[in-house]
């Protein structure tokens, strides 16, 4: 399926949280496209808005937070029409948060693999019951058929002893198996887009390797698109086709994974890559650091949010305006004045 | 960075001999002991003066238990913890009573993982960093305040912050506060339990650099408990790998990463996702899960997941032995296996 049309197009998305202490601009104008079958990685440090972006797509932003602007365009084959090549486009940002349409879409067409597998399951229902519930809710099948489908999906995710595990409770499983169960639940309705929010931060490195391999295999087999959110640059390098780097609610840079890692354009991406102690760096030498710390959400710097920490800060430009996200390569874009000619004074 | 000459091994600060820590599993109305969790099971190693020894392993492997036994937050079930004090005596920490331990505690300090949970939100920086001084007899407020200012400068915080409270600081700054508190009494040994794992990448590097700089300036000795092998490779002189309560391998960092001798170490190294899309990692992946330390498998604890297991591995417990000078391993087949490390 090589349709030129993206599956999901986010345009100038803004999510704000009006709190007593002030307004938190968690997402401040984010745009990107996810193609069918693509693994789209979002990286960033805490507070960069990667999780809020994910929640906005699923319409799970908790009040008082709300989407204050932008579009989340979801494209799907027109359901009842004879013309099967036709696609329809819906703006998820316009739907009722808990309305019928959003509820039928969430979990069925767009599914989530959450960060904490323990919190994703109810401890008082068996895992099988919970997966069956999801299947029955979104597909018109009998309980018996739902059980068969649940078992099939357990086989698919490589769950050992699947029959017994359907009758188990989440707390009876190890971290790795629990993560497999969560993936099974997310896949149970054949979603066209899977959102994985830090799916391996709660598990150990050998389990992480198992989970990443499983996700890669399933993705190749089912050709579903994945939005993969993580702060771990190693994980993103291994998983993603295309990467978006976020900082304080804005996109700093986006591009194919190889360009991001081997030809990063934005000073923030460059600094981030330099500062990881990798198994190949010179032992015990001082690591290059990003100076300063992440600003407090109430104290957003004006202009480019990275300018107070940026080694290539240009006084008079960077703090004066937010740079636009513009192409810096065939498929790579960066929002940085280094790549934008100074405006001709009027 | 002058590396110590290979043949001049510096003296030990701490020597751990056959350390065991079992936690009883109690069951039923009468709370009878129904079994044991062997959190640390026959662990022996030494930490040398001025070095950084990394202790790695997956969750539940017992690395934190070992760290807590060293600090005597736990009383070991058996074994010796020989501590070489500032005055040159050797004491067995495992045997000491609480009052006898007290004067020694100032020589061993801890840096915690969670910079949010480890600082009391109701105490100012002056109180947090000054508390160990007060507890250890520095009564004069003036003297304390001078020392606190000195410590804050040492960790890169302006001394004017002394009157502020932890909530005003970011994660990285809080970790600096925790480090200042740990250094207040000039410890000989600092146990750092995952000191950077809760921090963002751009801040992690700052804290690692600070720890390196402090080590050089104050000739500190670190026991660095961690699960991130990238950080360990960068930061440690030697690395000890634990699996289900046991040490499976211990070697110089370079040697361990270049040529691991235990299949578990090799699997652990292979599992680290390389931060480079041109390098595909995760080729030899481990199957199954870590066994429970309450009912470990027979023979070698790693045999059910090991690709190289033979009959002997299933029945006989391998001994922990020195395979090369300074390179220890617990594997029957360490001599014959040629395991792949991470090429430099």
Topology:
The complex is a heterodimer of chains A (346) and B (344).
Chain A: E1 8-19, E2 22-34, E3 39-43, H1 50-57, E4 66-77, E5 87-91, H2 100-105, E6 110-113, H3 117-120, H4 127-138, H5 143-156, H6 162-166, H7 175-187, E7 193-197, H8 205-222, E8 225-230, H9 233-239, E9 242-247, E10 250-256, H10 257-262, H11 267-274, E11 326-327, E12 333-334
Parallel strand pairs in A: 3-8, 3-9, 6-7, 7-8
Antiparallel strand pairs in A: 1-2, 1-4, 4-5, 9-10, 10-12, 11-12
Helix pairs in contact in A: 4-5, 5-7, 7-8
Chain B: E1 12-27, E2 32-48, E3 52-56, H1 63-70, E4 78-84, E5 90-92, H2 98-105, E6 108-111, H3 125-135, H4 141-154, H5 171-183, E7 189-193, H6 201-218, E8 221-226, H7 229-235, E9 238-243, E10 246-252, H8 253-258, H9 263-271, H10 311-315, E11 321-324, E12 327-329
Parallel strand pairs in B: 3-8, 3-9, 6-7, 7-8
Antiparallel strand pairs in B: 1-2, 1-4, 4-5, 9-10, 10-12, 11-12
Protein described:
- The complex is a heterodimer of chains A (346) and B (344).
- By secondary structure, chain A is of the alpha/beta class.
- Chain A has a domain at 1-38 and 45-99 and 240-276 and 296-346: P-loop containing nucleotide triphosphate hydrolases (Rossmann fold), CATH 3.40.50.300.
- In chain A, 29% of the residues lie in helices and 23% in strands.
- Chain A is built from 11 helices and 12 strands.
- Chain A has an 8-stranded mixed sheet, sandwiched between helices.
- Chain B has a domain at 125-185.
- Chain B has 10 helices and 12 strands.
- Chain B has helices at 63-70, 98-105, 125-135, 141-154, 171-183, 201-218, 229-235, 253-258, 263-271, 311-315; strands at residues 12-27, 32-48, 52-56, 78-84, 90-92, 108-111, 189-193, 221-226, 238-243, 246-252, 321-324, 327-329.
- An 8-stranded mixed sheet of chain B has the order 6-7-8-3-9-10-12-11, with helices on both faces. A 4-stranded antiparallel sheet of chain B has the order 2-1-4-5.
- In chain B, helix 3 crosses helix 4, helix 3 (125-135) runs parallel beside helix 5 (171-183) and helix 4 packs across helix 5.
- The two termini of chain B are 19 Å apart.
- Residues 1-6 of chain B have low confidence and may be disordered.
- The interface between A and B is large, with 49 and 52 residues.
